[in-house]
Design brief:
binds adenosine-5'-diphosphate; nucleotide-binding; 12 helices; binds 4-diphosphocytidyl-2-C-methyl-D-erythritol 2-phosphate; eight-stranded mixed sheet; alpha+beta
Length: about 325
């Protein structure tokens, strides 16, 4: 049996609109998700035991069965008990490069990589849609992470409509090390503040989804117009996160003022991203931002936008 090393990339949300409440307690969303080439490295080694073991040295990442990567492995064992009994367990090692609890889907992409990797190790031959359906049981963002690219994500986030890939752009990611935002908190706060604007029927959800599919951002992506893409990015969760996390609001303002195509918070934050036309532009903006915002724990990453999801190396 082979060992595999996989690269699991982060995502940003180019668009995140909260459309309404769902009967399952989650929110109905319309999002445009985009893969970014900032990757965690996941190594999977068959261990000959009847258990999964997880190794990760990041202080904020759980090392036990609550880790999303471990949960993905357990899900596979439950789905394929006889194959698990034959092939045995796997040691999962995670080298973390994606910042944690940052709105970049770090845990979800690790889980997606484990599904893809176990499919290979156990020679299951699962199709992409089958892997995406399994992934949806682990989290709202996990199905997207299986495939990656540029995708309209609706429902809880698990209904995927891939669109023309967005390539040739670069992104700056900026995050204060000491800040993290709880995703449930962000959604609950949004509900408390904006519930009176929510749509509620499946017909209204469908209509809104159609509007976004044919709307300004998706058109700009299809026509490969970087300036328009930067203009039409949007995130409803900024309305609750920015007033509460003033450092994030300031960071967003400073990066936005320094140029780039557009600046926005990703997901539930607190990472702020700036889309740039080139690596050089991104480097210049980061240099200038570091001169304005003198904070030892403010970190920047520069990475290309990519249409490559989980990669087996
Ligand atoms: C906000 C987003 C945007 O892409 O990403 P992150 O900022 O976490 O990366 C996602 O919606 C997060 O997706 P994910 O991180 O997979 O969340 P889940 O584990 O499924 O849900 C965490 C919690 O978020 C809330 N939640 C999530 C998705 C959704 N459509 N409606 C919700 O209300 C629920 O309170 C849920 O308990
Ligand atoms: N493999 C994992 N990598 C990162 N975080 C994980 C993982 N498994 C569980 N977590 C937990 O999930 C929570 C959300 O982290 P993460 O997935 O990085 O952020 P986000 O949901 O904002 O994209 C954190 O509290 C973290 O401890």
């Amino acid at each position: 049996m082979h060992s595999y090393t996989l690269l699991a990339p982060a995502k940003i949300n180019l668009y995140l609109e909260i459309v309404g409440d769902r009967p399952d307690g989650f929110h109905e969303l319309v999002m445009v998700m985009q893969t970014v080439a900032l990757c965690d490295r996941i190594t999977l080694r068959p261990n000959g035991l009847q258990e999964f073991r997880l190794f990760c040295h990041h202080p904020l990442v759980p090392q036990d069965s609550s880790n999303l990567a471990h949960r993905a492995a357990t899900l596979m064992a439950r789905e394929f008990p006889r194959i698990f009994a034959n092939y045995g367990g796997i040691d999962i090692s995670i080298d973390k490069y994606i910042p944690v609890a940052a709105g970049l889907a770090g845990g979800s992409t690790n889980a997606a990589a484990v599904l893809v990797g176990i499919d290979l190790i156990w020679e299951l031959g699962l199709t992409r849609p089958e892997l995406e359906t399994l992934a949806a049981r682990l989290g709202s963002d996990t199905s997207f992470c299986v495939t990656g690219g540029t995708v309209i994500c609706t429902g809880r986030g698990e209904i995927l409509d891939p669109i023309a890939p967005l390539t040739g752009l670069w992104v700056i990611l900026a995050k204060y090390d000491h800040l993290s935002v709880s995703t449930p908190w962000a959604y609950q706060s949004y509900r408390q503040k904006f519930q009176d604007t929510y749509l509620s029927s499946p017909e209204e959800f469908h209509h809104r989804r159609q509007q976004v599919s044919s709307g300004a951002l998706v058109q700009a992506i299809a026509q490969k117009k970087p300036a328009a893409i930067g203009k039409f990015i949007h995130n409803d969760l900024e309305k609750v996160v920015l007033p509460e996390f003033t450092l994030v609001a300031e960071l967003r303002q400073v990066l936005g003022d320094l140029g780039g195509l557009g600046t926005m918070m990703s997901g539930s934050g607190p990472t702020v991203f700036t889309l740039c036309s080139s690596q050089e532009v991104a480097e210049t903006i980061v240099k200038e931002a570091r001169e304005i915002l003198v904070a030892p724990d403010l970190q920047f990453w520069i990475a290309p936008i990519t249409d490559t999801g989980i990669q087996v190396t």
